[in-house]
Backbone:
């Protein structure tokens, strides 16, 4: 009988006190038959996340500089302490589902040209526009079959990661899995999503506008611009632009709309405004809600402004480890 492969599980966290114990317990249950190492990579939580993780007897490592906080830094921080043939990426508010690990490991062992594999996703229902929009696009966000990236995490082949230099880009406040997928595919690897349940995710339970303010404050909305900036320096700008084309197109449109407004030519402004009005009507008809249509425009405007802001942010070498401390080995 072949020996089971060693799997490192990297759980990225920031203020996940309500979910981290459940996440760790689900990992322990599903990996009980595999040699494994659980690593909680924390972005300097201000709640009891770190203490709770320590109480579970797992490796805990934390950032020491709050300015380093972002979605891309967590997995990369955990990767520094990882071991074994495979690496599983999760968030601290996810529950690993039964049966995924066996099928994922089997898939990667049988298909050596694939660098990573994920599964289907389920989540709780919350009353926000972002959640409704995500539910409408689940088949596009988490498509079953071969795909260009593994949104939400997945099981990755360490050998493939070592060939591309780093796991996730420490500069990115989102799109870290997309950027990873771009680099893996450019290196000749494939990615796949099984129909098997992978994780259950607890979404942010905030009103739409509060969530949008939170996204702006923590720089999540800057991620599209950060991805483009990284693409310019990393040689994957066309692929990055394809990922954020909606925000990019709308950012250009907003600039044109602003120029038309300050031109003082009302007829020109009216013509330029027509596409926005048409977009509002189409969204209204699709969602049967003028509030959702308005929220869609507000969200797209904020994320497009974030793209511009992200383009202007300084870029740090993604291969350079962030300042951090090992809390528990």
Residues:
């Amino acid at each position: 009988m072949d020996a089971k492969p060693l799997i490192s599980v990297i759980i990225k966290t920031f203020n996940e006190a309500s979910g981290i114990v459940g996440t760790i317990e689900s990992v322990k249950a599903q990996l009980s038959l595999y040699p494994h190492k659980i690593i909680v990579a924390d972005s300097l939580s201000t709640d009891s996340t770190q203490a709770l993780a320590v109480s579970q007897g797992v490796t805990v490592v934390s950032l020491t500089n709050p300015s380093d906080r972002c979605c891309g830094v967590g997995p990369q921080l955990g990767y520094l302490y990882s071991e074994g043939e495979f690496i599983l990426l999760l968030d601290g508010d996810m529950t690993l589902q039964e049966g995924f690990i066996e099928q994922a490991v089997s898939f990667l062992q049988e298909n050596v040209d694939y660098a990573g594999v994920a599964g289907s996703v389920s989540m709780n229902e919350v009353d926000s526009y972002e959640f409704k929009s995500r539910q409408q696009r689940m088949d596009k966000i988490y498509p079953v079959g071969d795909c260009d990236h593994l949104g939400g995490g997945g099981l990755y082949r360490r050998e493939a990661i070592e060939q591309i230099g780093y796991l996730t880009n420490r500069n990115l406040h989102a799109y870290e899995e997309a950027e990873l997928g771009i680099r893996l595919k450019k290196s000749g690897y494939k990615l796949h999503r099984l129909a098997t349940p992978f994780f259950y995710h607890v979404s942010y339970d905030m009103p739409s506008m509060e969530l949008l303010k939170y996204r702006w404050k923590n720089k999540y909305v800057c991620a599209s611009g950060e991805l483009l900036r990284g693409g310019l320096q990393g040689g994957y700008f066309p692929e990055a632009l394809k990922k954020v084309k909606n925000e990019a197109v709308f950012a250009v449109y907003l600039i044109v709309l602003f120029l038309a407004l300050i031109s003082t030519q009302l007829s020109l402004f009216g013509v330029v405004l027509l596409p926005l009005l048409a977009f509002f009507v189409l969204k209204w008809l699709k969602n049967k809600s003028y509030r959702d249509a308005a929220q869609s425009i507000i969200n797209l405007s904020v994320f497009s402004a974030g793209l511009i802001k992200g383009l202007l942010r300084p870029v740090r070498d993604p291969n350079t480890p962030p300042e951090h401390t090992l809390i528990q080995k």
The beta strands are 7-13, 36-42, 59-63, 86-91, 94-96, 114-123, 145-147, 155-157, 190-201, 324-328. The chain has a mean pLDDT of 94.
